[in-house]
Design a protein that fits this description.
The complex is a heterodimer of chains A (about 300) and B (about 280).
Chain A (H helix, E strand, L loop, with lengths): L18 H31 L2 E2 L7 E2 L3 H8 L1 H32 L7 H13 L2 H11 L6 H8 L14 H26 L3 H9 L4 H29 L3 H7 L11 H11 L3 H30 L2
Antiparallel strand pairs in A: 1-2
Chain B lengths: L8 H33 L3 H4 L14 H9 L2 H32 L5 H11 L4 H15 L5 H5 L6 H12 L4 H8 L4 H9 L4 H17 L2 H6 L8 H9 L7 H35 L2
Helix pairs in contact in B: 1-14, 3-14, 4-8, 4-11, 5-8, 9-10, 11-14, 13-14
Classes of the chains: A mainly alpha (about 300), B mainly alpha (about 280).
């Protein structure tokens, strides 16, 4: 998403000096008010709150860096963060690679039924993650779930998909890839369409085979799309919440499934530690910012320098 | 793309067959959780947990849906969700179009700063705002109200950006002509510009509507009385209730919750994928 910042001949009047600009101001007013009140100021407030202790009943007390110091030694935070990281590192590369392969296949000229496949793959994307997680919770059910039924038919003992420490996050990753690959495929397909067909024709004339074409033509030209898909996937997977809440059930998620946003939710709205909850939000935001910036730098260095 | 000429035709045909089969298997895997859920929702409680699993529900029990529907006030949840989704979508469409118009067709100081600000708010993650917005809504007395659910979601950077991009492609001659005819600024927007934006508005309608319909964490936090809950929150209550292992009812409820979004998507799928393309790749 690039913004066209080409400078045009512009008026140098302020909004109140001209009836047209007054109109522009009024057109923008509602949106700007809502964004400032419900988005910008809350983000700033979160930073402020993260330096306080506040339970919403008694007045907030300034606490300096106490919340951040506490985060460093909070074993439950650390566990939730490790789980989230494991989840991100598993779901992003696998999900993106898988979607890329599917998109490359769907982009083949001779293939019929592209629209049908693309539409079917997209269905999980539009369904709420709550409904989808309930369906997977049933498939993953230890006692009667479909997955364990298949395993026991093959003589393999049943597994505790969502509570076993080795299986919980992988199970969540499988669910995520299933729910999001259709979205990535659509974006990749759009990116592939923008590659001029003449380039492939030229490559064929030069004797490049299929794999060489993909490697030296498709992938480099697709790089901006790939970066976009990866960054979207990173942001999305760091904020996993709904799935964990549903799989966790009445008692909340088992330790093996505890992720950072759920821990934040529990700290802020379960224990009413608003200051501590905010500090978790701020740290998570910084982590994602760093990861996204690194991702972006790698992209720039590789393809644009 | 031409295939390798030196390869015999048989290999090529069987290669294509394998690709078709793989794509179909993937489609089946994509649909399986839905099909299995619908299948389970139509079984008896005993047949749902039978080993080996029963493939086709027999006896057929559609009355599970009536039971699931009545376990929680799902009619009320549907009404709430529909109200929030319709008002939220219409409001966000109007505000996005207005702001997009101002950014596309007027020229004033600070225009680019405002556009950058709007795009930058897209990057503010919701969990950072979770606590402060909750406190703000509590102070305003907006918790557990419809406006508390709707108003904060009315400004959607993505929609503003998309409308701006779209409106830039409409020639300004129309606007100038209308101005000479003495139309008001809002009149021009409403009667001249908006009717030309139907494709962008259709795309955004589907995006906004499915996002509202599926929204979960905000309604979960903002509402607390049963009458104000939405479908997704209602489903999560069911999933967290003692009926958690009543899989037949769980699957009936999940199907009821999933269906509207699937129907809307299939009805408008062309606009949907077009919109993603438009939003994601064109600057």
């Amino acid at each position: 998403m690039a913004i066209n910042v080409k400078r045009r001949e512009r008026s140098h009047k302020f909004w109140f000096q001209d009836y047209k600009l007054r109109a522009a101001f009024l057109f923008l007013l509602p949106v700007m008010t809502i964004l400032i009140v419900f988005s910008l100021l809350p983000s700033l407030a979160a930073i402020g709150l993260s330096f306080t202790k506040w339970d919403m009943m008694s007045p907030a007390r300034f606490a300096g860096l106490a919340n951040y110091k506490r985060l460093l030694i909070d074993a439950r935070f650390k566990a939730s963060f490790v789980n989230t990281l494991f989840y991100v590192l598993g779901s992003v590369p696998l999900g993106v690679l898988f979607s890329l392969i599917v998109a490359l296949v769907l982009n083949e000229k001779w293939l019929k039924g592209k629209v049908l496949f693309r539409t079917l793959y997209f269905i999980p994307v539009v369904v709420s993650s709550v409904a989808v997680s309930m369906m997977w919770n049933w498939i993953y059910s230890p006692a009667y779930g479909f997955l364990n039924a298949v395993l026991s038919a093959m003589g393999i003992p049943r597994q505790f998909w969502t509570s076993d420490p080795h299986l919980a996050i992988p199970s969540l990753i499988v669910m995520t890839i299933w729910q999001t690959f259709g979205f990535n495929v659509v974006i990749f397909l759009a990116g592939l369409l923008s590659i001029p067909i003449e380039l492939y024709e030229a490559a064929t004339v030069d004797g490049a085979n299929k794999w060489q074409q993909i490697r030296h033509l498709t992938l480099p030209l697709l790089a901006p799309t790939t970066t976009f898909v990866i960054i979207m996937a990173i942001i999305r997977s760091f904020q996993v919440f709904d799935q964990v809440l549903i799989l966790g059930g009445v008692a909340g998620p088992p330790k093996t499934l505890m992720v950072t946003v759920y821990y934040l939710y529990q700290v802020a709205f379960g224990s009413l530690k608003m200051g501590y909850g905010s500090s978790i939000g701020v740290v998570l935001f910084l982590v994602i910012l760093v990861v996204v910036v690194i991702q972006f730098r790698i992209h720039v260095r590789r393809f644009e320098v | 793309m031409t295939s390798n000429v030196s390869r015999p035709k048989v290999f090529e045909t069987s290669g294509k067959a394998i690709i078709y089969l793989t794509l179909m298997a993937l489609a089946l895997a994509t649909l399986f959780p839905f099909l299995w859920a619908v299948g389970t929702s139509l079984k008896t409680e005993e047949n749902a947990i039978a080993m080996p699993p029963q493939w086709i529900p027999n006896p057929f029990q559609p009355q599970n849906y009536v039971e699931a529907w009545n376990m929680f006030p799902f009619a009320r949840f549907y009404f709430n969700t529909l109200l929030i989704s319709v008002l939220g979508t219409l409001g966000a469409l109007l505000l996005s179009a207005m702001a997009g118009y101002a950014l596309a067709k007027y020229e004033f100081r600070g225009q680019h700063v405002i556009l950058l600000f709007i795009v930058a708010t897209m990057m503010l993650p919701y969990w950072v705002n979770l606590v402060p917005v909750y406190i703000l809504l509590a102070k305003l007395g907006w918790l557990d109200t419809y406006h508390g659910l709707i108003v904060p979601q009315l400004a959607r950077p993505f929609g503003i950006f998309l409308m701006r991009q779209f409106m830039r492609s409409i020639p300004s001659d129309f606007i100038d002509a209308a101005r000479i005819d003495g139309a008001s600024e809002f009149g021009i927007f409403w009667r001249v510009i908006l009717p030309q934006c139907t494709p962008a508005l259709a795309t955004l309608t589907i995006f906004f509507f499915t996002a509202d319909w599926n929204s979960f964490i905000w309604p979960l936090i903002v509402t607390n009385s049963l009458e104000m809950r939405t479908v997704t929150v209602g489903l999560s209550l069911l999933a967290g209730s003692p009926y958690r292992t009543a899989y037949v009812l769980q699957m009936a409820a999940a199907t009821i919750g999933a269906l509207p979004a699937i129907v809307v998507f299939l009805a408008f799928q062309r606009h949907f994928t077009e919109g993603i393309t438009l939003a994601g790749l064109k600057g």
